[in-house]
Write a structure and sequence with these properties.
Length: 663
């Protein structure tokens, strides 16, 4: 393989730096003198290149040089990702690390980020040291940088958590258009993308909490002596605690290979200052424009001031961003095949309203950045709607996020797509349901038949995506009479596309982080299904034993429930029902004459068997099956876990029983 001259010279420079660093030249001279002295006769003072290389190999110098030119990774880490996932909260002494050499591309520039422990996590000051094998709460650090994502090993929650992880971040990805060229310090200084770090806490029940979200400015390393710098990063809380320190992480940054020429600290400080000024000026101009737009909107009709027109929203750090910046066309690669499958994926991400300290019933506003939402694996309705809208835009649909209310005036967001034929479809991001909108005409005669809306939405104040923002200026904001002709400025007041582009366009210097790529699921569906099913069998048997009832399981009947669970998930994803005839026929054959069959399917988005069982018992139909009394009672349970990206999953459980009917 031939290299271009400039690459060859860069590669030679890297190797030369490494040889000088290891003082290889001095060691070669020693070996040369030793070899001449020991192995050659006095009359033959000629030494070939082959003889010298052989001597260097024998003394292990060649191996040492090659080892220094490679990075080392832990094979156990790779095995952990490919092996069946164990609960991250179990700490057992695993095998000592087996180190494997990993070649890195010497023509690319890397940032090696090491997390060398934490301190001052005062909330965990009183936590005792976990015993080996004991279940405990853990911290996990998630990183995103220029389309690359990383996750640390979980560590027990403590005042000084024992983080010891290294992440190799490629600085120059191909998206800059010249991905094959080694970047210098000046080019890297223009790369304004921060390293986004999200700290997640997982409790003993597997519930996740967002602890902190931090944007690390890594470019200080470009002016550091020897290309290495140590940073103490103070993490602040999220939401209502966004001004409170939660702890400090010790981070070491190192450029690899080392830069030939370092920048002066004055240059980096000036660059950061210019970027901040440019961002602040863009945001100031947009704010001036937004105020003017709002004044014009209120002049159309005074009652507009009570409509839900949302121009700015706060992220998890309490910072305001234009709502359009939370949307960006997002492609799922090969992880999701259809828009409806994307809607199903978003719906199985957990739903949880942002926590509020104290009473009052007020809703705490918190629109999470995408990385925080994905790593936590749950969020509010706005997070779901933003992700679904971004995915639908990635599939080439004209999608918008709608801001309005549901029944009883509860604020809500959902997604809308506009078909080329004018069809308006609403997508509920929390359930995956789709509704076609047919507006009611208020001018029709009273006896004219009007379509009955099936959707739960009552009012709509505005719609937006990454390029457009439109305020509803129709006489009524009721969804059922709303006309979604977005080109008609008498019905929808638009914002300037240029103004939105100035603060929301990807690639521009702004305070909005780039979107991370989606990650494939790490859950093994078959193993997880078996584990939950086994736990449920034990729980059912114990529950019946407490009632003085024996339990006999029918494995064949349990297996026959599988097609029904697969059909339920297919229906949720595609809205198509299939396979019901075969399932009913199989059950009729499995249940003898004079016997009764009862079945109860239920759906969850978590994998906690005990929690699922407690929920099932609250249903009188399910309790009737689990606590069934009679002659020749046979019980069955089947669990089917359907995995989606980001380790989201749909868990279907079906309890069933058959027994002899006694009149």
């Amino acid at each position: 393989m031939s290299l271009p001259p400039e690459k060859a010279s860069e590669l030679k420079q890297i190797i030369h730096q490494q040889l000088v660093k290891m003082d290889v030249h001095g060691r070669i001279r020693e070996v040369l003198a030793e070899t001449i002295r020991e192995e050659l006769a006095p009359e033959h003072q000629q030494l070939s290149t082959e003889d010298l290389i052989k001597a260097l190999r024998q003394r292990g110098i060649v191996d040492e040089v090659m080892k220094e030119l490679k990075f080392v990774t832990d094979v156990n880490d790779k095995e952990r990702t490919s092996a069946p996932p164990k609960p991250s909260t179990h700490f057992v002494n695993r095998e000592p690390p087996v180190l494997k050499k990993t070649n890195i591309d010497p023509t690319r520039r890397y940032l090696y980020l090491q997390v060398l422990g934490g301190k001052a996590f005062l909330e965990h000051l009183q936590e005792p040291e976990p015993l080996p094998g004991q279940i405990c709460s853990t911290f996990t650090l998630c990183l995103h940088f220029r389309n690359q994502r990383f996750r640390s090993k979980p560590v027990p929650c403590a005042c000084e958590p024992d983080f010891h992880d290294g992440f190799l971040l490629e600085v120059h990805k191909d998206d800059l258009g010249d991905g094959s060229k080694m970047v210098d310090a000046t080019t890297m200084l223009s790369i304004s993308d921060p390293v986004h770090m999200v700290l997640i806490k997982t409790d003993t029940f597997g519930e996740t909490t967002l602890v902190a979200s931090y944007f690390l400015e890594w470019r200080s390393v470009l002016a550091a002596e020897n290309g290495v710098t140590n940073v103490a990063v103070e993490l602040l809380g999220v939401g209502t605690e966004s001004k409170v320190s939660v702890g400090v992480l010790n981070i070491r940054l190192e450029m690899y290979p080392q830069l030939n020429k370092m920048l002066s600290p004055e240059i980096t400080k000036t660059q950061f200052s210019l970027e901040r000024q440019k961002t602040a000026e863009k945001e100031r101009l947009f704010l001036v424009y937004a105020k003017q737009w709002w004044r014009e909107y209120l002049q159309i009709r005074p009652t507009h001031n009570i409509r839900l027109v949302k121009i700015f929203a706060q992220d998890e750090n309490g910072i305001n961003h234009p709502v359009c910046s939370y949307i960006r066309p997002l492609r799922a690669g090969r992880l999701l095949d259809t828009p409806r499958q994307a809607a199903r994926f978003v719906s199985v991400m957990g739903y949880e309203r942002a926590p509020v300290i104290g009473g009052g019933g007020g809703k705490q506003e918190q629109w999470c950045t995408l990385l925080a939402f994905l790593c936590r694996n749950k969020g509010d309705c706005e997070d779901h709607a933003n992700l679904l809208c971004s995915l639908l835009l990635g599939y080439g649909l004209e999608a918008f996020v709608c801001v309005g209310t549901k029944a009883k005036g509860v604020p809500h967001t959902w997604v809308m797509t506009c078909g080329t034929d004018g069809t308006i479809t609403f997508w509920e991001s929390l359930t995956g349901h789709r509704y076609v909108h047919r507006p009611i005409s208020p001018d029709d005669p009273p006896l004219a038949e009007q379509p009955k809306p099936l959707y739960p939405y009552r009012t709509i104040g505005c719609v937006f995506n990454h390029q457009k923002f439109l305020g509803n200026c129709q006489p009524s904001d009721a969804v059922e009479v709303c006309v979604f002709d977005l080109q008609d400025e008498s019905k929808w007041k638009p914002m300037s596309g240029e103004a939105i582009k100035s603060v929301c366009s990807p690639g521009t210097i702004s305070s909005v982080p780039p979107f991370p790529p989606l990650c494939a699921s790490t859950i093994d569906a078959a193993i997880t299904s078996n584990e939950i099913e086994l736990q449920l069998r034990i729980l059912v048997s114990e529950h019946r034993k407490d009632l003085g009832l024996s339990t006999v399981w029918d494995d064949q009947l349990s297996y026959l429930l599988s097609p029904a669970l697969a059909a339920y998930e297919l229906e949720r994803t595609t809205s198509i029902s299939a396979g019901n005839e075969e399932f009913q026929d199989a059950v009729r054959r499995a249940v003898p004459d004079g016997h009764t069959f009862k079945g109860f399917p239920i759906h969850f988005v978590y994998r906690n068997a005990r929690r699922a069982f407690a929920t099932c018992l609250r249903s009188p139909f399910c309790e009737e099956i689990i606590c069934c009394r009679g002659d020749q009672v046979r019980l069955a349970v089947r669990v089917r876990v359907f995995t989606y990206p980001e380790s989201a999953c749909a868990v279907w459980i079906m309890f069933a029983c058959k027994y002899r009917s006694v009149l």
